[in-house]
Amino acid sequence: MVNGGQFASHLTLDFLPGHVWLVGAGPGDLSMLSMGAYAALKVADVIVYDRLVSDAILAEVPVTTERYYVGKSAGHHSVPQAQIETKLIELAERGLRVLRLKGGDPFVFGRGGEELMHLLEAGVPCKVLPGITAAAGCAASTSIPLTYRGIAQSCRFITGHLQEGKEGLDLSQWYQPSQTLVFYMGLAQAGAIAAKLMSEGAASDLPVAIVERGSQPDQKVWETTLAQLESTIRQHGCQSPALLIVGEVVALRQKLVACLPEMATAAV
């Protein structure tokens, strides 16, 4: 039988000098970090990490590891995306094992595809390790099933963040009965999101959960409706990072929490 240490060593045998690994750190809870991601952060020479990588995960990075913070928040990009990509290439060309650590999953609203494309075009060897995306991790940590037989047969992830220079929301049809919608980065556009969904036929009392810092010790959850979404955010001063989970599955939360009271973190 292979023990944990041997398995971790096996996972990182191909993490060679001059390589870049794009790794998902999950929603923040250390227990949701994959074994591969954990092994990689232990052997990397340098990590380039985002704002959404939690303190608990950063605490596992060896003190000798070089670090670069390239975090972004709504309307405030500390490091332009093109500069991040250039930095990754420069670090790889120095012969370092470069760990690009991203909250959630690199390929779900994490711009991992863009970074991978630029790295490969520059001839840099790469590998992608997926992470638990925020929708799955935050829903599980708050007892909201994203799908449920007879209530939600599908789930859709949508970004509420507008690309710089773009105006208005995605014009595609969002609302469908028996579907759960999860909006990433949607706080600032919550009023417009709610209005769009109601214009497409969603009931004004359709349940919505606002999950702030999901899966982390200071997680907060507010349950509201589409009609009251914007006022709830304003009343409680909700802050990013936060997800909006929209659909009838949100109404199941209180029944599930009654059986699992430890999951009722900061319920309102």
UniProtKB/TrEMBL annotation:
Matching SUPFAM superfamilies: Tetrapyrrole methylase (SSF53790)
Pathway listed: Porphyrin-containing compound metabolism; siroheme biosynthesis; precorrin-2 from uroporphyrinogen III: step 1/1; Cofactor biosynthesis; adenosylcobalamin biosynthesis
InterPro entries: 4pyrrol_Mease (IPR000878), 4pyrrol_Methylase_sf (IPR035996), 4pyrrole_Mease_sub1 (IPR014777), 4pyrrole_Mease_sub2 (IPR014776), CobA/CysG_C (IPR006366), Siro_Cobalamin_biosynth (IPR050161), Uropor_MeTrfase_CS (IPR003043)
Domain Tetrapyrrole methylase: 20-229
Record PROSITE patterns: SUMT_2
Annotated TM spans: none
UniProt keywords, alphabetically: Methyltransferase, Porphyrin biosynthesis, S-adenosyl-L-methionine, Transferase
Keyword Ribonucleoprotein included in the entry's annotation: no
Record's keyword annotation contains S-adenosyl-L-methionine: yes
Domain of life: Bacteria
EC number: 2.1.1.107
Family: Belongs to the precorrin methyltransferase family.
Protein's name according to its UniProt entry: uroporphyrinogen-III C-methyltransferase
Organism: Pokkaliibacter plantistimulans
